[in-house]
Amino acid sequence: MEKITIYTQSTCGYCNTVKEELTKNNIEFEVKLIDEFKDEWDNVVGLTSLPTTPTICFKNNYFLPGRDFGNPQALIGLLKNFKESDFTLSHRNNEAIKTLNYNISMAFNRTNQILTQIETKIK
Q1: Is the peptide bond before 54 cis (omega within 30 degrees of 0)?
Q2: Considering the entire predicted model, what is its pTM?
């Protein structure tokens, strides 16, 4: 497996947990403290729109806790099973936008259902 980069903070306990899990699974990684690599970190945040640590870079793909993995073990599985897409970036972006629109629509529908139930109980 190619070495990964982990953007982290020295005070981030979760970052340490992720690094321990990577080490236990013999996954090589380079640590970049966001305070020491400020310009690079600013570019990553500009790309992902999420200033969250730990941010993992693997094969020019960025993985963030909560967005891409729920716990360190899920990250390990993601990295070990990662396969680069055969599709163009444009095609992948188009599919991602469609999925995002679908998820937003589903969230609004669930919210509407809950509000309707609340309105029914209030009346």
Answers
A1: yes
A2: 0.79
Residue 48, number of CB atoms within 10 A of its CB: 15
Give Cβ neighbours of residue 35 (< 8 Å, ≥ 6 apart).
Answer: 9, 10
| Helix (H) / strand (E) containing 14 | helix 13-24
Sole residue written with tokens 């188009």:
94
Q: Is 40 helix (H, G, I), strand (E, B) or coil?
A: helix
Asked whether the beta carbons of 67 and 61 are under 8 A apart, the reply is no
75 backbone dihedrals φ, ψ, rounded to 5°: -60, -45
Structure confidence by residue, pLDDT tens digits, 26-49: 999 999 999 999 999 999 999 999
